Amino acid sequence: MIVPPALRSFLEAMSYPPGSTLALMIIAFVLLRWRPKWARWALGIGIVTLYLATIPALSGPLIKYMETRYAPLSDTAARESGAQAIVILGSGRYPQAPEYGGEDTLSTNGVTRVRYGARLHRVTGLPILVSGGRPYDEEISEAEIMRRVLEEEYRLPTRWVEDRSRNTIENARFSAEMLHKEGIHRVLLVSHSRYMSRAMQAFTSAGLDPIPAPTLFRTKETQQGLILWLPRTTSDMRAVLHEYLGMLYYMFQ
Fold first, then answer.
1. C-beta atoms surrounding 251 within 10 Å
2. How far is the CA of 161 from the CAs of 49, 63, 86, 185, 237, in angstroms?
3. Among 108, 131, 161, 244, which one is least packed by beta carbons within 10 Å?
4. Pair 211, 189: CB distance under 8 Å
């Protein structure tokens, strides 16, 4: 079952901190008058989970573990991999960018993936497939933006444009349909290092033989000591939860 993007976004927002913490605080407020003991428990759990979700001392090692599951792909390994194509997964857009005349362009993460895909193409000469749709009914698909950036800014051709997908499962299914028609099964798969496990799971299930080509590693933690225990942001923990809950969800697809 494919969850609609809007519903998926809502469920994610309320399942991960700080949304889950807000939900617990609302529950505590509702229970305060009739079940004060339960209210204190809900509030305490909310405070603890929010703190744990914001400290690099916890999220850092989890991110590092995710990123070390697949090593960086060397140029030699890419050339000798036996791959027949390069698949670049989309990673968000920068909507109505004023410095680009108000057009949608790639997010910072999207640019990182496209740049690495361009490098792999120059190293291997393999054709490129870009994958990303219009999950919120945008005027232009993410794949089309990626194609435009590759061709206009990197001067590289794009062989396939998969523009129907709304999530990684559909990235894999629709890309596999296009590639299988041309007898292609083995591909270099470009995604973030921290998200590569889920992408590999999806593309293997779709009948392809993906070779991980991860990018955007967190190479070094610059902060040390007590600073690691100070609350900072929930973004890293959200990435961890998104990855592992996504892998669990994919097991039932």
1. 9
2. 41, 31, 12, 17, 32
3. 108
4. yes
124 by Cβ neighbours in 10 Å (0-12 / 13-18 / 19+) ranks as middle
pLDDT value of position 20: 83
Can you give the pTM of this predicted structure? Answer: 0.86
Q: Which residues of 204-226 are buried (b: 16+ CB within 10 A; e: fewer)?
A: eebebebbbbbbbeeeeeeeeee
Average pLDDT per run of 10 along the chain, which is 253 residues long? 66 77 87 88 90 88 88 96 98 94 94 97 98 92 97 96 94 98 97 94 96 87 77 84 78 69
3-state class of 17 per DSSP? coil
Q: What separation in angstroms does the CA of 62 have from each of 10, 58, 195, 235, 240?
A: 24, 7, 12, 13, 7
Q: How far apart are CA 151 and CA 148, in angstroms?
A: 5
pLDDT given for residue 114 in this prediction:
98
Our CA dihedral for 243, 248, 251, 253, rounded to 10 degrees, sits at: -80
Alpha carbon separation from 238 to 32, 202, 224 (Å, rounded): 29, 20, 22
For residue 18, whether the previous peptide bond is cis, meaning omega lies within 30 degrees of 0, is yes
Whether 84 and 187 have beta carbons less than 8 Å apart is answered as yes
> In the numeric block, which tokens belong to residue 193?
């290092």
**CA neighbor of 124 nearest in space, from 78, 72, 158:** 78
